[in-house]
Fold:
Amino acid sequence: MAHPDSDLYPEATGLAKAVVDRHSAPEPLVLYSGWFCPPEIILGDVCRYQYVEVNPYHKPESLLKLNPRGLVPTLQYDNKPLYESTVICEFLEDAYPDHTPKLLPSDPYEKAKLRIWTDFVTSRIIPSFHRFLQFQPEQFSTTVDKVRSDFLENILQFTMEMEKEGPFFLGKDPSLIDFVMAPWAVRLWVFDHYKGGAGVPPPDEGGADEDAWARWRTWLAAVRERKSIKETTSDWENADNTAQSELAKATREGKGVP
Structure:
């Protein structure tokens, strides 16, 4: 029996497709990824690499040999596998130390703090993004307003930890946390398309939290304008909120990964 999500659009589009095409030639460093999980934003700024696009329901044998679970992104380095986005990013920081911008601060405390809030993005913001997008009112007892509110509360907590002036999380230069958060932030339009809006207040309408929302807008504008982020973002037509995998159902219910 075919997987319930096997017909989801399997390829990058727009500027992201151009990046895929430019990195199709064989290289010692190989990134396996998919349009829904864009190429690691920093890779093009760091080193030469080959990009192998993966349809998650028709995984190539070469990926499964590296990573039997078939997870993407998976990085092949010296014929050995690495996976998990933040692990890959930190590995690139260590393996290619001459690149800029630096992903992590040199100060031990600031580095640890950045890791705490990067974990917040992956453990709190991204799951709440999925629960909001994949929410189906006919299936669960909660409401779309509740999942929207939970998502926005996570965004506010994230924003309140930003350096005051910006524009990026730590200041004038982007770092690991900006690149981890960016793929989700630049796709907030999906909530306008499917859920009646993300709920981020317009300028001067944020009430008691207006300062935080103003800082969020500054950060988001800077992220959207960064060349490497533009070039790794597929066109909006690929978005969907009807996925029926066990993972999709679990995130809609607010459960852990099955």
